[in-house]
Amino acid sequence: MAKVAKDLKQGVQKGLQYMELIPKEKQPVTGTEGAYYRRRQLMHQLPIYDQDPSRCRGLLENEVKVMEEFVKQYKSEALGVGEVALPGQGGLPKEEGKQPEKPEGTETTAPTTNGSIGDLSKEYVCEFCKGAAPADSPVVYSDRAGYGKQWHPTCFVCVKCSEPLVDLIYFWKDGAPWCGRHYCESLRPRCSGCDEIIFSEDYQRVEDLAWHRKHFVCEGCEQQLSGRAYIVTKGQLLCPTCSKSKRS
């Protein structure tokens, strides 16, 4: 019992140490800006309509099947959750009863870490910044990357937007972690009108932006713009009349 209590105490200390490595304004402590930041990031990085066809608006039957296959594939090939451990300890099995308790006031369970310190004679390097990772300081591992790579907690970010990966949820692609939003967008276009992924092959594209045909409308007067003149300014789609009125 004494050993179990000691191990639990060490686990809690490591979990708290991990939390301290995160910028204070992003620590998910209940009632703080960090908690609100986490919720915003969850909705932005992992939109529910990127995961559940029933939460999309107006998918046709054949598009539902395409989306279901899309989600099934990314869950199988790319989706993962980062693991927190000391350098050299990633991927090692956790002994039963060594899960650390939840630090008081946090919204999520503190990441689990192994209690032992890695090989002090080995130099561990962060995959992102290439800086040293001290053997006694927690790092993040990705099973899809292999346990020979590790990241400082603040360096486990989306390769596209450089934002921290909320709850360590990542999508592995091209040798780097992505957030869910940008991973999905790297495979299929996202509608600038409704923000959902487009699963139809019939859509409107203007430069690097895309729209469902039904959402290709003026953001000022809402008239359909397919086959008509339009202007795209700073990501905003307008008819010539509304564009002129905004400039005046």
Word description of this protein:
The chain is an alpha+beta fold. It is about 25% helix and about 10% strand. The chain has 5 helices and 9 strands. The strands form 4 sheets. A 3-stranded antiparallel sheet has the order 1-4-5. A two-stranded antiparallel sheet has the order 2-3. A two-stranded antiparallel ribbon has the order 6-7. The radius of gyration is 23 Å and the shape is elongated. About 30% of the residues are buried. The N terminus is likely disordered. It is found in: Cytoplasm; Nucleus.
Can you lay out the helices and strands and say which pair or pack?
Layout: H1 2-21, H2 33-45, H3 61-77, E1 79-81, E2 83-85, E3 139-141, E4 169-173, E5 176-178, H4 180-187, E6 203-206, E7 209-212, E8 231-233, E9 236-238, H5 240-247
GO molecular function: transcription corepressor activity; zinc ion binding
Biased composition (Polar residues): 106-115
GO cellular component, one term: cytoplasm
